[in-house]
Design a protein that fits this description.
CATH topology of the largest domain: Creatine Amidinohydrolase
Strand content: 15-25%
Structural class: alpha+beta
Strand order of the largest sheet: 4-3-2-1-5-6
Shape: elongated
CATH class of the largest domain: Alpha Beta
Oligomer: single chain
Helix content: 25-40%
CATH superfamily of the largest domain: Creatinase/methionine aminopeptidase superfamily
Bound molecules: zinc ion
Number of helices: 9
Length: about 350
Amino acid sequence: MTGARIAAAQAALRDRGIDALLVSVGSDLPYLTGYRAMPLERITALVVPATGDPALFVPELEASRVDTSVEIRPWGETDDPIDRIATALPARGVVAVGDQMWASFLIAFQERLPEARFVDAEPLMAPLRMIKDEDEIAALRDAAHGVDGVADQLSTVRFSGRTEREISRIVSDLVLASGHDSVSFAIVAAGRNGASPHHEASDQIIQPGDAVVVDFGGRVRGYGSDTTRMYCIGESPEGFDEAYAVLERAQAAAVASVRPGTTAEAIDTVARSIISAAGYGEFFIHRTGHGIGLDAHEQPYIVQGNTGLIRAGMAFSIEPGIYLPDRWGMRIEDIVVVTDDGVERLNRSSRKLRFVE
Ligand code: ZN
Ligand code: ZN
Ligand code: ZN
């Protein structure tokens, strides 16, 4: 697997006339080597030349944690790692740099190699990472299945009288118990807090009549889950049910529109036109979705202006929302995978409003 991915990256380098790829922390590294580096001040860097063998430079003390088929070159505590890595880079060529490398490292490389040209590696890596293979889709499927169970378990939890933070902790525990390796986020946004799409769970006490946005995800074998379901405490707030019916329709129609050959922005248009026609257009304040994989948010972004073609193997969220300032918010989110002739919805828990105590 690793070998095939490195070969694909090298072919992409040669296609673009780039001499080497330089990646550090971030998800390109585990994608290419199977190893996720700690985001620390001791640099870990993979150098992939357009032709020839790649090399992975790691701090000596971390070398024993690394399990990869790529050649490992440990550097010691008193070595200058920038110097050692720079000798593996073309002094006058073009180097594509992973988008999450620390600025301090990039500046050091630029000073060490003043005649090299550094470009963004994302246009090279994103097309590779966007198309998931069977193992990646299996991990995404397992992750989705885990959080679907959590959404259902939450329907039996008492929300009323607890703080958003308490519910968020319960969600996190359930996500881990579902077989996830880690929790990435557990947004719980009650009442008017729901109108802020990325609200951080606070000490606000959840009250009867609140609508609560619960948006959560974690990682299974490196791959993300991400789902949003809506919980109402006893009853729904005024004006909520009518809007929710619109949102359900918009989300379902957007999912149904996913197939190879459509564009990312066309999927956004499907959701947005239904919400706009019902009069809530100005309250749908974010894109319809984002890709998911080794990163929680990655390409393709399902947004106006992205005319990129949708292709089999892509995985992304469909998560329209309606946010009425100072009143409430609502969102429904599923992860989908594009198949050869349509779409597989990975999240299958009920999207109906869930009434809880
Ligand atoms: Zn989000
Ligand atoms: Zn989400
Ligand atoms: Zn999402």
